[in-house]
Amino acid sequence: MSAKQDQQAAGPSAAGRPDEQRPSNAQKDPRDWKTGDEPMTGAQASYLHTLAEQQGEEVPDDLTKAEASEKIDELRGATGVSGGAKGAAGVENTRKDPEHWKTGDEPMTGAQASYLQTLSQEAGVEFDPGLTKAEASKRIDELQAKTGRGQAQRE
Q1: Closest CA to 30 of 60, 70, 59
Q2: Which end of the chain has a smaller Cβ tally under 10 Å, C or N?
Q3: Above 70 in pLDDT, residue 44?
């Protein structure tokens, strides 16, 4: 049976008609995720620990992806973080000062290095490959200001 026949046999929702609204993965219940029983991701762990710290809560390090997602939703509600730029008290919460990052003293990420190389070249300055995550973040901010990149996102 061809893929098209498989879709037709499975019913109209599987055919993916253009006018059909299908739920996004962001709306899928974490308990229904195929990888929900795998260990939480590094990004989930970092965000979860940040939210828990704001609430004075401890969270276990051995949560699954699904459990971490549910705990993040719970803590976001408790802290007033909605996914927008401002939290309950109108305080900026989408950007934590790099000085307070738990992993800020680790080497910069590949993405940071790549972007810094581009910015350094555009700004006519030397690229420093030995920066930490926190230092790289600050340097990116400096070079964005110098080159004019990233300004539309901040306004």
Answers
A1: 70
A2: C
A3: yes
